[in-house]
Amino acid sequence: MTSVGRPVRGRRGRRGVALLPSGEWAGQPSTWRAARPSVIAGALGRAVARPSGNWFVCGASGEVGRGRPVGRTVAGVEVVVWRDGSGRLLAGPGACPHLGAPLCEAAVAGGSLVCRWHGMRVGEGGVPGWRPFPAYDDGVLAWVRLDEAGGEEPSPVPCVPERPAAGVRVEAVAVCAGRCEAEDVVANRLDPWHGAWFHPYAFSGLTVVGEPDPEGEDRFVVEVAYRLAGRAGVPVRAEFTAPGPRTVVMRIVEGEGVTSSVETHATPLTPPGHPRPRTAVTEAVLAASSRPGFAAARRMAPLLRPLMRRAALRLWRDDLAYAERRWQLRNEGRFPG
Questions:
Q1: For 4, 29, 42, 91, which has the most beta carbons within 10 A of its beta carbon?
Q2: How far is CA 323 from the centre of its chain?
Q3: What pTM was estimated for this model as a whole?
């Protein structure tokens, strides 16, 4: 257990909002001594060793409509995802087995894909040279199982993190990509100490009050205030866990918005060992509150989602620079520790 810096105290008002302490960015307590490379590396090592069942997040569930397929590249594999007439998510190789046409441009008819080059039909039953991939829609994210790329024992469904109930939450999904590997994204999230230093516009007074215990609760626990405007902020206690090799979940456990969570999923775009790797970051923000007024916020979800995505992408513009730098140093054999 460790304590870094000073917890957010300040005058707490109604609705969980507090007046944050004033002070210059450079005057906050440093966290570099507590952010021990061995602790971060240990948490990362345990995360990447956990099974994935060969499942990869390939985007937001809402991106895949009923009338149009969507193309993705996952771990160097061209993938197409679409929905049948009942709305069920389907997936398969992205190239037509006839002459390689892009199936992301195919028509959807009768639950199958009809290639626009020569009319070849492919679907759930497959054809010679083309077999579908297992797909899963968890209501927020779309997943595809690639057994050859994953190289693990396959599982029937992905490990979906615990979430606030669908009827009481507002969710938004943001996606961006950078030149790094999935482990660099996960490592970034398993370093909570950088929050108030690297993102002072979003976080204040971040204090790590619990470190992972390999023999017990393998999680980080932090106390932090989410900045609203000026010196106003919302103090919470949150935990960071890594349920799989490419996923980190932040969940609020005390304070305003208990059970709200942020899922960060790292999906490799390039095959393993690629000299210029690229990784997509898919971040699902799931906000919940027991306050009566949150029902009104849920009714305004179509207006709130773009704001939630914008906030997530602002953070990831910074954090991808962090992850890309980490990969560069590792690639050059200069990474500390």
A1: 91
A2: 14
A3: 0.93
